């Protein structure tokens, strides 16, 4: 699991027998694989023609999965529509423009929905964003007001940010102008959507780490313009954070408690309000949320898709798609949820490298998961630089870097330290060059990455 956290390295693909045995849904629903062999799949958006776009930050590309025209439940094919991007995550359409949130900018390109291809050239519309620290990824969506909303998380677990745009949701005109901070105090709001009955904005938020297994809760916030949602001075229902002390702006702002609390470290990511008018069972005013799952909890928790039921008495959380966690054996990690033109629910999984399709249609009456063609990652070869290196000297300098960047605070200290698994020089270098949140992106030169790799490898 730690390699998935550090590098985005996928886990084992799930076979049909295991899925039939372990995956759980409410009565009347079935699940199958829409696409597999898609490592590091993250956020999704449907085109007007019913094709599905999928972002892959660690691969630097956007994949188009062709709609299921032959009715077998699987995508009819795939192609890369744009590549060589800087860790693209959030994607959305505004008319014939496809917008992409990269690590330090937002860009857009003309998109032909009928042909499923891009046109003309890719152009930046929002630049100068920071992409350092723990939560470098960015999510974007267009709201009911046709404005571009952009979320980016904090650089750290707990700190006061130097860049006031971190740990916020921002708002821009479609051309990138008139940018403003919409709401603050949101540590890492990876997913957000608007409720269709009142156009209120709701955002998931990942609570801080290193306070034990059961605190603080992760959050769902009803986000309103100008509000402050607590981080880093408050956790959960406005519980003060002892590591920060009093809020120096307490006379200017009041923290807003969450609309709903998820269990601690469940890591809620994508959220989608869905049309349930034809669903079986008790589903009214529902949002689906992908819980990516804990990374440093002593007993893993999360790893499921939940339904949030908005009632007169509050928000009720239920398991919708479960079974990813089998007594600590993790089969998958849900990331995003999207409803297709066919009414089915599509769920991305960056661990199993799959897109699931959940349907209540009688045409899909059993779990049918196509075995993945993905092969297990080949063993890393030893990089050329190792043979000619003075590994002892490099390891000594790497130890200083390890101390300088306080790596021990996550990997050796705290209530649930994240121990480093046995890994190769090449795998450690990749993790340092392209880390998976919450591991920060460190400002290291190529030589420093090698020195740190030499030290970490020597300690295993």
TrEMBL record:
Provide any one GO MF term from the record: heme binding
Q: Where is the Cytochrome c domain?
A: 393-460
TM helices/strands, residue ranges: none
Question: What InterPro entries does the record point to?
Answer: 6-blade_b-propeller_TolB-like, Beta-prop_PDH, Cyt_c-like_dom, Cyt_c-like_dom_sf, Quinoprot_gluc/sorb_DH_b-prop
What highest taxon heads this organism's lineage? Answer: Bacteria
One short Pfam family name for this protein?
A: TrAA12
Sorted keywords for this record are: Heme, Iron, Metal-binding
PANTHER family in the record: LARGE, MULTIFUNCTIONAL SECRETED PROTEIN, LARGE, MULTIFUNCTIONAL SECRETED PROTEIN-RELATED
- Name used for this protein in its record: Oxidoreductase
Organism source for this protein? Halioglobus maricola
């Amino acid at each position: 699991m730690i390699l998935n956290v550090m590098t985005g390295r996928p886990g084992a693909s799930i076979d049909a027998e295991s899925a039939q045995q372990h995956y759980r849904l409410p009565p009347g629903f079935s699940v199958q694989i829409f696409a597999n062999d898609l490592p590091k799949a993250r956020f999704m958006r449907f085109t007007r023609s019913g094709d599905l776009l999928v972002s892959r930050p660690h691969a630097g590309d956007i994949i188009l999965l062709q709609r299921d025209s032959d009715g077998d439940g699987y995508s009819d094919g795939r192609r890369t529509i744009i590549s060589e991007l800087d860790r693209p995550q959030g994607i959305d359409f505004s008319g014939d423009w496809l917008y992409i949130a990269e690590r330090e900018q937002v860009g857009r390109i003309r998109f032909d929905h009928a042909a499923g291809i891009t046109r003309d050239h890719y152009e930046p519309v929002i630049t100068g964003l920071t992409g350092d620290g723990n939560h470098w990824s960015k999510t974007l969506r267009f709201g009911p007001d046709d404005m571009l909303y952009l979320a980016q998380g904090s650089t750290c677990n707990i700190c006061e940010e130097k860049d006031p745009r971190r740990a916020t949701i921002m708002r821009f005109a479609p051309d990138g102008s008139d940018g403003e901070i919409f709401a603050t105090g949101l540590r890492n709001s990876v997913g957000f959507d608007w409720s269709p009955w009142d156009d209120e904005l709701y955002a998931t938020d990942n609570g801080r780490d290193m306070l034990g297994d059961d605190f603080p809760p992760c959050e769902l916030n009803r986000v309103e313009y100008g509000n402050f949602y607590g981080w880093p001075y408050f956790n959960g229902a406005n519980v003060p954070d002892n590591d920060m002390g009093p809020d120096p702006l307490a006379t200017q702002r009041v923290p807003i408690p969450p609309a709903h609390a998820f269990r601690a470290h469940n890591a809620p990511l994508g959220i989608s309000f869905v049309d349930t008018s034809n669903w079986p069972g008790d589903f009214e005013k529902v949002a689906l949320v992908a819980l990516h799952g804990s990374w440093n909890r002593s007993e893993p928790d999360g790893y499921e898709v939940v339904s949030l039921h908005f009632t007169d008495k509050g928000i009720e959380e239920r398991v919708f798609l479960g079974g990813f966690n089998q007594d600590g054996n993790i089969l998958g990690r849900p990331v995003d949820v999207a409803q297709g033109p066919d009414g089915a629910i599509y769920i991305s999984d960056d661990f199993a490298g799959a897109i699931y399709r959940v349907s209540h249609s009688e045409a899909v009456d059993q779990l049918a998961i196509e075995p993945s063609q993905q092969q297990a990652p080949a063993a890393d070869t030893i990089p050329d630089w190792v043979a000619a290196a003075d590994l002892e000297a490099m390891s000594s300098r790497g130890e200083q870097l390890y101390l300088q960047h306080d790596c021990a605070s996550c990997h050796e200290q705290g209530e649930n330290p994240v121990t480093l698994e046995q890994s190769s020089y090449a795998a450690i270098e990749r993790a340092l060059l392209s880390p998976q949140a919450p591991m920060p992106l460190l400002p290291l030169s190529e030589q420093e990455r090698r020195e740190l790799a030499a030290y970490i490898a020597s300690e295993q």
